[in-house]
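PLP-dependent aminotransferase family protein
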Amino acid sequence: MLVQRIDRREWRAHEKLPSIRQLALEMKVHRLTVFKAFQMLKQQNKVYVKDKTGYYVQSGIAPSEFADEPLVNAYPRQNLLSALQSAVVDYHLTQALIDPSLLPNQYFSAYVKKVFDLYPKVLSTYAPVEGDSELRESLARYFARTCGTYVSSEQLLITTGAQQAIHLVAQSFLKPRDTVMLERPSYSAAIDTFRGQGAHIVTVDITESGYDMDAVEAAMRTYKPRLFYINPTFHNPTGAVVPASQRKRLVELADRYRCLIIEDDTYPDIYFGSKPVPPVYTFDTAESVIYIRSFCKYVSPGLRIAAMICPPALMSTLVTAKSLADNGSPLLNQKIFLHYFESERLQQHFDKLRIALQIRKEVMEEELSRTDWQWVSPGGGLNLWVQLPAGQDVSRLLAAALERSVAFVPGSYFDPDNRASTHIRLSYSYLNESRLREGIRRLVEAGNGNS
Ligand SMILES: Cc1ncc(COP(=O)(O)O)c(C=O)c1O
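Structure:
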């Protein structure tokens, strides 16, 4: 209906649309329905968001009798989380992203200059598809130093974020109806990627104590999944860390049942107490693990640098997939990252960042301690996984929170089985302390009116 109204030019180009609340009242629908419609219009490029003040009509929309019929219907794809993250609110608790003011911005212009001085033709050439050789060698040394593993730089593939690595895996190893095993809950965009590839999904639960390894074995034996995608260190969204004994057994099972493990390690350096246990790939002796390590979150999301450690037998398949995706990640980004990564500043940055994030986590926990909501305090990562008490309905809470300009992620977004959830994910990494306090206060107020 909104599409037709835009096509009918009810609002002119660049005119602000009425608020979600107004439209919901006017059209006698729930506010969430309007919110979803706005997200769809945004995806279809019919509206855009400006300065967080609201939704505006895009210019140059040609109305036609087929206005809402694309020339070719796309195969359905979704990215639930990113739709919610683009909601226009003042207090985003949806962003498992680090506050940009905590990142080393002040140094990057110097590194950009240094890179142009050292490699004047850096923008005049493609990078090798598998990644810059200097960066791959540097990362091989880094993994030897930090994980005690010998990894040849030939086994390293640089990707444009962990998200691309997950996508390359899905493209390379899955055909529709192949079985994929996922943790429940699981990182939402990974679920969407595997679903988008037509995979049949089976799940095993992950809790604060890791997996029930007998359940993992039973699932591998019964369903024979081609791969098991895991995020075992400061798991998103639960914050869980899978213990070393389970990591060891997991690689044994993977070898026995011929199931490829895809280990997504996006948060290992964000720990608040002791360092987490070594990655699953370090226990692997049978080349059963592809390891994905992102450096986006806490160095520079904008550079989009991640690395995969690939068993040699799988490397060429992944390099081909990478070449078909983008012919290699931008060389400039890789070189800027390399020079920062090799500097002493990286360690100093980590030390400060861990303290800043721990403080923010504690601020969030302090505010939530006034409620009967429950969570296990994570030893690292960016999120609290909060269990709401009986009587709190998550969608009603989200609607009430959006009305107070606060957004969080409902637990169901992380459920590969699409079951109803009484959990919500609150990220403490994006807002500063005072905004975090205010955001949580508003959320709790929304909850008080909701129960
Ligand atoms: C578990 C997990 N994997 C992958 C990603 C994507 O990371 P990147 O920015 O490296 O693409 C995220 C981002 O939230 C994540 O939480």
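The domain at 91-103+346-448 is CATH 3.90.1150.10 (Aspartate Aminotransferase, domain 1).
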